[in-house]
Amino acid sequence: MARLLDVLRQQAGLTGTKEGCGEGECGACAVRIDGELVNSCLVPAAHAANASIQTIEGVAARGDLHVVQEAFLEHGGAQCGICTPGMVLAAVDLLERFPHPTEAQVRAALAGNLCRCTGYMRIFESVLEAARRISASRL
Amino acid sequence: MDAPQTGRSVRRKEGRAKLTGQALYVDDVAPAGVLHGVTVRSPIARGVVTGIHFDPAIDWDEFTIVTAADIPGVNRVKLIVDDQPYLASDVVNHAEEPVVLVAHADRARAEDARRRIRIDVDPRPPVFTIDEALAKREVIWGEDNVFKRYRVSKGDVERALGLAAIVVEGEYETGAQEQLYIEPNGMLAVADPEHGITVWGSMQCPYYIHAALARLFAVPEERVRVVQMETGGGFGGKEEYPSMLAGHAALLAWKSKRPVKMIYGRAEDMVATTKRHPSRTRHRTAIDREGRLLAMDIDFVIDGGAYCTLSPVVLSRGTIHAAGPYSCPNVRVSARAVATSVPPHGAFRGFGAPQSIFALERQMDRVAAAAGLSPEEFRRRNFIRPGETLAVGQTIKEPVNMPALLDRALAMSSYRAKRERFTRENGRGGPARKGIGFATFMHGAGFTGSGEVHLRSIVSVDVSREGNVRVLAASTEIGQGTNTIFSQIAADALGIDPDDIEIVRPDTSEVPNSGPTVASRTCMVVGKLVETAALSIRHTLVDSGYLGAVYDREHFFAACERYVDAFGRLRASSQYEPPSGLTWDDEQYVGDAYGTYAWAAYVAEVTVDLTTWTTRVDDFVAVQEVGRVINPTLAAGQIEGGVAQGIGWALYEDVVWREGRMLNAQMTNYIMPASMDLPDIRVYFEEVPYPNGPGGAKGIGELPMDGAAPAIVNAVAQATGANLTRLPLTPERLMAAMEMSVA
Predict the structure, then answer these.
(1) CA dihedral B554, B556, B560, B566 (to 10 degrees)
(2) Pairing of the two strands B590-591 and B584-585
(3) Backbone Cα Rg of chain A
(4) Interchain CB distance below 8 Å, B181 and A79
(5) d(CA A86, CA B193)
(6) Taking CB atoms and an 8 Å cutoff, what residues of chain A touch B232?
(7) Are B668 and A25 an interchain contact pair (Cβ–Cβ within 8 Å)?
(8) Is the pLDDT score of B743 beyond 90?
(9) Sheet containing B570-575: which strands, arranged edge to edge?
(10) Are B452 and B521 in contact (CB under 8 A)?
(11) Residues forming beta bridges with residue B470, ordered by sequence position
């Protein structure tokens, strides 16, 4: 039974979704199925039939970076980049559910996404900055 | 011209591609007709191979199969001693040693085939610990199981120990640490006798692979091409191992005449590739009644695993850093790297220094206590000062000020007030204890001793008629920011914007050999070459009259166009020249070990839960002097990431071994720090320009790995009162140490 991860990468050519561990620990393969954040290495492709799937390729709208991506770029939220697609999706998912997260909520929301490069500090900063910008744009 | 580009948090050059999923890593490309390669490995740690058994239930004609007998050239991975085979044939020296390679167009069928090949091995006694290796009951490498020895000697240690008022002894151990870059090792190869060999992959050092493949296939180096793909983390784990994997993929491609991709799964990467060397350090430290160091006698041993790989140089760095940033008239460091029957340990951020520094900084706290001094006062009395000499006889010429760094770190962390409060509150009992501790240390930047002279690194810069400025270097972007800082350095040298600079992808058919991306050398050493080559372009334009002494971007591009029209080509190269006044004796191990050092003081605050024996880091302050900072956001990111790895090494990351094999080869049970596990990591840079670095910068990458573990364990020692000597300090180890100290 094909994993959603393999179908995305090999059949749909959407290689932005990464495989870090293949056992749902690292979050590099995170995507959203009908708005729900999942690790695509643990999802049989058949479970996603007729669902709307968002991968990293669908986060920047028509070439404009999402506010989360902008904030990561400015605040050093990405280093080697391999955890980044999953991290960005987890952050986007958080901010859609909780537009004004505390740092503790950011930490909890990203607990399923491992990063070996950054020590996470700049990722937290990026997500909090994105939240501030979303709030400001809604005033 | 605009304000300098160095010193600013210019955005990561390849950041947009990484954030949108467009950056291509090796597993993201799949050429037509590609085969998937897998590796059949030794089932046991040591023995004689008696046969290879292929399950007759499947048709092996469908598969490409490679054994040692198929190797066209030399079956040894080129490195220092060249003792490690690409594929074992007669004997195996560690579990998971590669023996057979298999490829098939269908990845699942290749994996199935791997399980149907059995390597029969007649066992021989393995050696699993440093003590067993040194006991030599089984000799598994050379004459005495020792890959390399160093001896550093200053003054008369025995005499000073004999006369001293106080002598403190200690023994310290550190465990293996898994790299855990989130992108496992991977390579793609095409190879045939007619066209030569090309590999694309995840790597730090394209020219290491280049030299290795030429020897493996017995072809001239110009027939080999190595191209770096986007690389998802390295930390040293992609320094030497990629030569092995590139060789395997290329051997399968050579035999099958098809492109072959080999991408390790996480478990395979964890069991088979290199980890941080385990270590054991013994100290005898003599002080006088004023708490001044009289003698340091240090015995430092690292476990290199089954083959030599980089152990001699890892040992070297650990040896030179073993006596730390202290002034001591009598020092002896006896250092050995030994062989054991486990997969070879290798380069990992810090490269031997974190091991010896952990031991030293624990020892210094214990010596301070024996002297009746606070840890900070004891260090203050012994810090190295300009004009004094390190253990290797290097006289410090730079304006180092360790007391000031320590004071700032202690102030930022409210150390004194907290130390007193925790001592008071811990005395009242309760279910938890708190502690605060620190470590003071240094890290040499660039290759040790004459290493950079031997490397003779080269960087080129060229400019097209259209003003496309390209930096050509083999230095790889592995997340640390090479692309961005090179752009900033070149932009400042040329008086243009970082966005005007293109960093050419490391491809040995195009870029010169600027050396490996290791040893905190990319910014300081290679960045300096970028600066020099770019300045040379500028001088050429000015001297030829096409560019005025004062100019703006538009003038620069107009001058490039006119120059190229007139002369056809605008290119400059720069080759490493050692700073004047450095001397190093490889035989005696005396002299200027490094051109310069980064200096640091790190403070950790912890809470220890007395019910579960878990330790949590509540706050972390990292103060360092790394010369001038080229890009504050990237530099702070380096420090925070290194500290996080250090916290993992100190508390969580425990490689569990059974019969020479890593048992917990999964992210599920080998625990690295996640977002909830880390404290706020507060970073401060004391900026003192280094005259020989680009824009005044020194090296930075490895430094933060050195200080976290000793600071944390010193804090846990304050919290618990236990004598803690082993990393990682897991709850089990802490409980055992507490029971020992009560007993």
Answers:
(1) 100
(2) antiparallel
(3) 14
(4) no
(5) 42
(6) 18, 80-83
(7) yes
(8) no
(9) B501-503, B469-472, B458-463, B570-575
(10) yes
(11) B462, B502
What's the sign of the alpha-carbon dihedral B655, B658, B662, B664?
negative
| Domain with residues B32-124+192-257, CATH architecture | Alpha-Beta Complex (3.90)
Q: Is the pLDDT of residue B2 over 70?
A: no
Q: What is the largest CA-CA distance in chain A?
A: 48
| Euclidean distance between CA atoms B237 and B179, whole angstroms | 6
CATH number of B15-23+457-575: 3.30.365.10
Decide if B24 contacts B228 (C-beta within 8 A): no
Q: What pLDDT was estimated at residue B580? A: 87
Mean pLDDT of chain A: 97
Averaged over B400-423, what is the pLDDT? 98
| Contact of B507 with B495, CB cutoff 8 Å | no
Q: Which amino acid is at B58?
A: I
Judge: A72–B19 Cβ closer than 8 Å, yes or no. Answer: yes
Rounded to the nearest integer, the mean pLDDT of chain B is 97
pLDDT band at B678 (very low <50, low <70, confident <90, very high): very high
B106 close to A (CB below 8 A): no
Whether B32 contacts chain A with CB within 8 A:
no
CB contact burial B638-654 (16+ within 10 A = b; e otherwise): bbbbbbbbbbbbbbbbb
Rounded-to-5 percentages of helix, strand, coil across chain B: 35, 25, 40
Is A35 within 8 Å of chain B by CB?
Answer: no
Contacts of A60 in chain B (CB under 8 A): 19-20
Query: Which single residue is written with the structure tokens 């749902």?
Result: A24
Which residues of chain A have a CB within 8 Å of the CB of B478?
Answer: 80
Domain with CATH 3.30.365.10 in chain B: 15-23+457-575, 279-448+587-742
Residues of B in contact with A108 (CB under 8 A): 675-676
Residues pairing with B170 in the sheet = B283
State both tokens at B69.
Answer: 């007998």
Q: Is the pLDDT of residue B500 over 80?
A: yes
Domains of chain A with CATH codes: 4-58 (3.10.20.30), 67-138 (1.10.150.120)
Checking if the pLDDT of B1 tops 70, the result is: no
A107, A137 Cβ separation under 8 angstroms: no
Topology of B279-448+587-742 in CATH?
Answer: Aldehyde Oxidoreductase; domain 4 (3.30.365)
Place of tokens 């006596």: B323
Encode A22-67 in three state secondary structure: CCCCCCCCEEEECCEEEECCCCEHHHHCCCCEECHHHCCECCECCH
Least CA distance to B640: which residue of chain A? A119
- Within B253-317, strands assigned E span 260-263, 279-287, 293-305
Neighbouring CB atoms inside 10 A of B165's CB total 12
Tell me the one-letter amino acid at B423.
Answer: T
Structure tokens at A22: 């293949």
Task: Tell me how far apart the alpha carbons of residues A87 and B546 are, in angstroms, rounded to a whole number.
Answer: 49
The secondary structure of B327-369, three-state, reads: CCCEEEEEEEEEECCCCCCCCCCCCCHHHHHHHHHHHHHHHHH
Interface test with A, best of B9, B12, B20, B630 (most A CBs within 10 A): B20
pLDDT of residue B739: 86
Pairing of strands B330-339, B146-154: antiparallel
Interface confidence, given as ipTM, is: 0.99
Q: Which pair of structure tokens corresponds to residue B41?
A: 């490995």
Sign of the dihedral defined by the CA atoms of residues B384, B155, B318, B79, in that order: positive
Task: State CA B536 to chain mean position distance.
Answer: 32
Question: By the CB < 8 Å criterion, does A126 face chain B?
Answer: no
Where helices occur in B56-141 by DSSP H, the ranges are: 107-115, 130-135
CB contact under 8 A, B641 and A60: no
Q: Distance between CA B33 and CA B646 in Å, rounded?
A: 43
Shortest Cα distance, chain A CAs vs residue B674, angstroms: 6
